[in-house]
Amino acid sequence: MEVIMLFSSLLLTATTTKAAATGAPDWTSNVLMIGLLVVVFGFMYFFTIRPQRKRDKELKAQVSKMTVGDTVVTIGGLVGTIANIQDDNVTMTTSVAHTMVTYKKSAISTIIPRQQ
C-alpha cells in the first residue's frame, strides 16, 4: 500500500509540474490518476472485502447447521455449550454452575462441533 501511495504522490508531482510548465492542464494526468484510484479500489476489494464476505458466508452456513451440544464463542468472548435453539435465539450454558444465557444467533462468532 505504501508503494501505491508513493507512486501516486510522484505521479501527482510530475503532472502538476508539467501542467505548470505548459500553462495548460494535461488530460492524460487526469486519466492516470483515475486509473490509479481504480487500481487501489480493486486491490481493496480483492484483499479485504471479498475475503470478509466469504468468511461471513461460511459462518452463516455453520450457524444454520449448529445443534444442541456444540460449543460456541460469542462476539463478546463468552464460551459455552448450546442447550436450546429457537428461531433466532440460542441458549447456552457457560460454566460449571450451568448458568443459562440466551443470545441472538448473530452474536455467535465461532462454532466448535461436539465430538461424537
What does this structure look like?
This protein is an alpha+beta fold. The chain folds into 2 domains: 2-62; 66-112, Roll (SH3 type barrels). The protein has 2 helices and 5 strands, in the order ααβββββ. It has helices spanning 2-22, 27-65; strands at residues 71-74, 79-85, 89-93, 100-104, 108-112. Strands 4-3-2-1-5 form a 5-stranded antiparallel beta sheet. Helix 1 (2-22) runs antiparallel to helix 2 (27-65). The relative contact order is 0.11.
Annotation keywords:
5 strands; SH3 type barrels; single chain; 116 residues; 52% helix; alpha+beta; 22% strand
**E-strand count:** 5
Number of domains: 2
Our count of helices gives: 2
Structural class: alpha+beta
Low-confidence stretches: none
Mind telling me the C-alpha Rg? 26 Å
Give the neighbour order of strands across the main sheet: 4-3-2-1-5
Note the overall shape: rod-shaped
Share in β-strands: 15-25%
Helical residue percent band: 40-55%
Average pLDDT score: 84
Q: Give a short account of the largest sheet.
A: 5 strands, antiparallel
Distance between the termini: 46 Å
Helix and strand pattern: HHEEEEE
Task: Tell me briefly what this model is.
By secondary structure, the chain is of the alpha+beta class.
Helix and strand arrangement:
Layout: H1 2-22, H2 27-65, E1 71-74, E2 79-85, E3 89-93, E4 100-104, E5 108-112
Antiparallel strand pairs: 1-2, 1-5, 2-3, 3-4
